[in-house]
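To assess whether ligand presence alters the predicted conformation, the chain was also submitted together with LLP. Input:
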Amino acid sequence: MNPQSPASLPADAPWIVMKFGGTSVATLSRWQNILELVASRRAEGARVLVVVSALTGVTDALKQLCAQGEPGKRSEAAKAIAQRHYDLLDHMQLAMPDTLGERLADLAKLAHEGAAALGELAWQAQVQAHGELMSSALGAAFLSHSGLPTQWLDARDCLAAIALPNQNERTRLLSSMVDTKADPALNARLAALGEVFITQGFIAREAKGRTVLLGRGGSDTSAAYFGALLKAQRVEIWTDVAGMFTANPRQVPGARLLQRLDYEEAQEIASTGAKVLHPRCLSPLREPRVPLLIKDTNRPELDGTVIGPEVRAHAPSVKAISARKGITLVSMESVGMWQQVGFLADVFAHFKQHGLSVDLIGSAETNVTVSLDPTENLLDSDAIAALATDLAKVCRVKVIAPCAAITLVGRGMRSLLHTLSGVLAEFGQLRVHMISQSSNNLNLTFVVDEEVVDTLLPHLHELLIAAGALRTDDSALFGPSWQALYGSGESPAPAAAWWHESQRPRLLEIAAQATPRYVYHLPTVRHQARELKRLAAVDRLHYAVKANTHPAILKALAEEGFGFECVSPGEVKAVMAAVPSSAPLLFTPNFAPREDYAWALSTRSTVSLDSLYPLEHWGELFRGREIVLRVDLGRGLGHHEKVRTGGSGSKFGLPVEQIDAFLRLADTHGVIVRGLHAHLGSGILDDAHWGEVYAQLASLAERIGSVSFLDIGGGLGVPSHPGEAPLDIAELDRVLREVKAAYPQYQLWMEPGRYLVADAGVLLARVTQQKGKGTLRYLGLDTGMNSLIRPALYDAWHEIVNLSRLDEPATALYQVVGPICESGDVLGTDRRLPEAREGDVMLIAQAGAYGKVMSSHYNLRDEADEVVIE
Ligand code: LLP
């Protein structure tokens, strides 16, 4: 590589500020990395200012030095610190540069002399500043020696600390702030000096000329200050991770990279738990609108997180869920002082007096509860006890700890509430001590017991995605998961088997003949069938034909050895017509008329009953027959309330408490209960579910001597939102085998529908018109809820693709709608797609299950026809 820049830059060339932290500057190879990155920015035609931290561990070592009383010990500490820098120089094969030599001499002198001359705090600041002064001096030498002429800049000559009225001497010297009005003079001064600069994070100078520190997160803040002063094109924070994520990846490996945030959101995420960026470093950049980029030093090719001014062209979305542990709640009950004037003032005066800063506040007429965040407070039990003693003089005090604050962050949280019902339901089983909504409408916080957080967080993250509140499908905002970027290399399976990408020319041809059309891909059906055949515990698999009754699909599944589960004579006839073999048939209707049973009994179908009525009223019909009893296990599950088929709110299944009555009736009519059946709902993605049903059915069966098989239903879900984990078939089998080992006497049957066909089908439609309305853009297709009712009925999410423009960037945000005269005729909301044109072919994915079978002639629009591809 030749990092030497080809041409010199004009005076008004833009600035890029790049900040590297302690680990990024601690070794030769890391510096080689920095060299390359800086050279690449220079090659973009920008002036570069590099801001560095001290070598890792050096700031701590300097603090320890400061804490030493004896001059001898301090000098020894200074020597050890100097040695770190000699070692690195050695490694770089560099001679000692003057700038570094001077710093080392200064440090030795400061260590020897101690605080006396400067005063304790000023001395500490001066000593600690040396970490950055030394690392930057070393870096300047390395970069220049490597062919990238680099000017060493003393940050204290550029960053002027301001004195604030509420600061004491300690904060003024050790946690200072800087005035960041754009400084054209600085810009010009530096531009005259060179093109690449290196300076220190963490330090500045105050009006009296003393060195001051910028406190925690200081180097990021320095980079932001410089970005603002120079009105840089951007500030880049180089760190060990690609950016901010939708949750802490240590708790939620499926957390997604946040590719785009506005300043306020990023600040909120940083303040509520994310460690990657100090919240303080964003405010200097807001007014000059300088974007900040977080990048991974080890993986510079990753996009990272861009934080900038608000962009409106996004769907409202929760951006992150964060958790802070170690929260203490203080609940204060006013004693008989209902709405007394000054109560809050009295109470808060005590917090101020104890130096405790309050985070969340909840208040009622006679109670106020506040939270104390350990990152903002020095919380120990003594501090809390002292506070409680004082508070007890004005109110009744209760301290609740340890708690955790779980925060949902996103712009416009209040407008997202309706999407959160499933997420909020999760809190139903927990002790929620407090709920707080920030007045800036950016966060919603729940304070719960600390112990529940680690298990709760991944679950809430998943629910937020499933509810469409965390819009991870918006690829402009949400990047890959942490797991995919840094995990074992196994990226989560895509939301669906996107066979349509390889079949695109074929699909375009099919659409050119006519739209709307359903297209089914038989290899995908077979693939899914073979997946299920890996379930060694299952003795018999049936396809629930209600999902898709296309004869080619029925045939393909018969060839794979599946039986068929039907709910009407029509379905039985469809199977018989397509599959004239002797494949097993189940007849599992609900509230069917008498004649349906009579007819089914005349076929080879195994008939199931799920209420007392048929035996009470039509007992003769079933005399001497073997039947299946469908029971309701008291709960329902599934992707939407309307597809849950258990519990008293659902019309399916015989309640367990009526089983005895059913058995008596069966006895009376000589009916034999050969099988027990339960199907609790559809679209279930929890591997454990079927094992539970199996075990429950088995234990019920033990009370009924005649049972020989258990049918644990269908309901196997397929992930629809990107990032949702698919069912783990091997794990499901393991669970089922475990139950089977306990109940080997029963055969195990299943009857999945969706799993076999959902991904195998797509709906093709054409763009008809577009319309802008307010901030929304509508994209009209030639079919809608008449062909695919799932979005309207269940808010189901189907991936939508512009097949005609697969390679174009997705720059538009569309509401994808059909031509039906209903406001609910929407196929997808807030979809990021390429700019579309009339006639473009749109593909609606995962339409193989419950698509065509649920379509209608509504508005007398033609139904989509069906095409099968091998
Ligand atoms: N067995 C019985 C008794 C069923 O009622 C069903 C589906 C199944 C099996 C197959 O369930 P699957 O494996 O496909 O989830 N229209 C809704 C789904 C309704 C499911 C009705 N019963 C949807 O589009 O999501």
